[in-house]
Design a protein that fits this description.
The chain is mainly alpha-helical. The chain has helices spanning 17-30, 42-45, 52-69, 86-95, 100-104, 107-116, 123-137, 151-168, 213-222, 238-251, 255-261, 267-291, 294-323, and strands at residues 4-9, 35-40, 76-80, 143-145, 176-178, 187-188, 191-195. 55% of the residues lie in helices and 9% in strands. Helix 4 runs parallel beside helix 13 (294-323) and helix 7 packs across helix 8. Bound molecules: tryptophanyl-5'AMP.
Length: 327
């Protein structure tokens, strides 16, 4: 039996190179080896306000991004989270074994609720990690390929799995994160101490997967670099290290190899090349996106939900029996 992986992305903003390099690129690699489920997590997206028409459009777009990046619906299941209501039902049950301080300490909640003031943060935002645990535990997921920012959430999923098992008997698998070191935290182009983020206010901080060649060249040119001029991969030069990581992951070359290629060259030479490497990835990807019709994608999502729903139903029924619901 193949091991199972599960992951998802929120349709809540522009997807960027960090999402691709930290998550989707690994999914594409893992899909041959693992029984793979990839979700468009629209219920997570609404934990902060979304414009309804935009949310609908983005959910379909995220599925297109999965496909255009190389996720193969013949090998994997792709579906929209809200199409399988068992996610919400299990989240409710898991809420009852989650302690308030466990959610209060979540970095993502603290950061996001700080933005507009804690008084205006929704209960959904607070409860976000429990819904994520439900996504993962519903399918006996063994590995969760994500970027580093999700580690704390996966740790909670492990805790809840073990807590439930202890109280009600063996039911859930305690999942582990799958993280690839270089891509796990792609940093903002304008600040190497902040992660690249889709909720960023400054457009120059990230490369969107929909950026055209001119925009990519402009953003890479503007990216901050460190003092000095040598192309070296080092913790002393965090901004450059981040750019080398992007180059390295897109070209499948080791950072050392890249250092060698650019020996004696200047930051500007490296940046010019890096922009072309990004464009070389983005252009065929964007073409594949354009070739995907909404109808085709909706059919893939419907098939994905059909294939996945029975797994979710079976697990939820098992859970309901164990906790004493009349089923
Ligand atoms: P989301 O939508 O914020 O991000 C999607 C994925 O992109 C990764 N990522 C990054 N990786 C490297 N560098 C960056 N700068 C960067 N920014 C984002 C994220 O780590 C993530 O893997 N909570 C999840 C969605 C989710 C989920 C799940 C994931 C809901 N249920 C179950 C796994 C399993 C999230 O907010 O992702």
């Amino acid at each position: 039996m193949k091991k199972r992986i599960f992951s998802g992305i929120k349709p809540s903003g522009d997807l960027h190179l960090g999402n691709y390099l930290g998550a989707i690129k690994n999914w594409v690699k893992l899909q041959d080896e693992y029984d793979s489920i990839f979700c468009v997590v629209d219920m997570h997206a609404i934990t902060v306000p979304q414009e309804p028409e935009m949310l609908r459009k983005r959910a379909i777009e995220i599925a297109k991004i999965y496909l255009a990046c190389g996720i193969d619906p013949q090998k994997c299941s792709i579906f929209i989270q809200s199409h399988i209501s068992e996610h919400a039902e299990l989240a409710w049950i898991l809420n009852t074994i989650t302690k308030i301080p466990e959610l209060e300490k979540m970095t993502q909640f603290k950061d996001k609720s700080a933005k507009n003031g804690r008084e205006s943060a929704s209960v959904g935002l607070f409860d976000y990690p429990v819904l994520m645990a439900s996504d993962i535990l519903l399918y006996n997921t063994q590995l969760v390929p994500v970027g580093e920012d999700q580690l704390q959430h996966i740790e909670l999923a492990r805790t809840l799995a073990k807590r439930f098992n202890k109280r009600f008997g063996d039911t859930f698998f305690a999942p582990e994160a799958y993280i690839q070191k270089e891509g796990m935290r792609i940093m903002a182009l304008d600040n190497p101490n902040k992660k690249m983020s889709k909720s960023s206010q400054t457009e120059n901080s990230y490369i969107s997967l929909s950026d055209n060649a001119d925009i990519v060249r402009r953003k890479v040119k503007k990216a901050v670099t460190d003092s000095g001029s040598e192309i070296v991969y080092s913790d002393e030069k965090l901004a450059l290290k981040n750019l080398i990581n992007i180059y390295s992951l897109l070209e499948n070359k080791m950072p050392k190899e890249i250092e060698k290629t650019f020996t004696g060259k200047k930051y500007a030479d490296f940046k010019t090349e890096l922009a072309e490497v990004i464009i070389k990835f983005l252009q065929p990807f964007q073409k594949r996106m354009m070739d995907l019709s909404d109808n085709k994608v909706l059919k893939i999502l419907e098939d994905g939900a059909k294939k996945t729903r029975p797994l979710a139903k079976k697990k939820l029924e098992e859970v309901k029996k164990k906790i004493g619901f009349v089923v």
